[in-house]
Design brief:
PTS glucose transporter subunit IIA, Dup_hybrid_motif, transport, mainly beta, kinase, 3-stranded antiparallel beta sheet, transferase, Glucose Permease (Domain IIA), single chain
């Protein structure tokens, strides 16, 4: 009975990379902007390190290293680095994790070569998409954030 009176703990989400946090609807890719894959947020990056937005298990590492799936008891999400960057076939991306590995929130999971990717004409906007129907409450919309900084919460 006392569990009914306990306040549910909120899951805090950190930015996967340093840059300007924007609404997912502002992303220049209709699949993300329309939230067809799920709700979330995006960051226009200004550095090369990608960190885990939540603690959990790496449930997917795309062969091209441009996207990662992470899940825990409260959330399931994808960190997708750039738009159409799958076409780079992994060039400019370095992963530090493997599928099945446990990660801590804020842990570096990948590194990207921002200059090389953008020089080839790719938009490097990085999306965090919740694939489990979670809708994050954004705390730092349109603000410059650091990788690992709390930027959203889940009820």
């Amino acid at each position: 009975m006392w569990n009914l009176l306990k306040k549910k703990k909120k899951e805090m989400i950190v930015s996967p990379i340093q840059g300007k946090l924007i609404n997912l609807s502002m992303v220049k890719d209709e699949a993300f902007a329309s939230k067809a894959m799920g709700d979330g947020f995006a960051v226009e990056p200004s550095e090369n390190k990608i960190v885990a937005p939540i603690s959990g298990t790496i449930c997917a590492v795309f062969p091209t290293k441009h996207a990662f799936g992470i899940a825990n008891d409260h959330a399931e999400l994808i960190v997708h680095i750039g738009i159409d960057t799958v076409n780079l076939k992994g060039v400019g991306f370095h992963s530090f994790v493997e599928q099945g590995e446990k990660v801590k929130q804020g842990q570096v999971i990948a590194e990207i070569d921002l200059d090389a990717i953008t020089q080839q004409g790719y938009d490097i906007t990085t999306m965090v998409v919740f694939t489990d129907n979670n809708v994050p409450k954004l705390l730092k919309l349109n603000e410059f954030v650091c990788g690992g900084e709390e930027v959203a919460e889940l009820e």
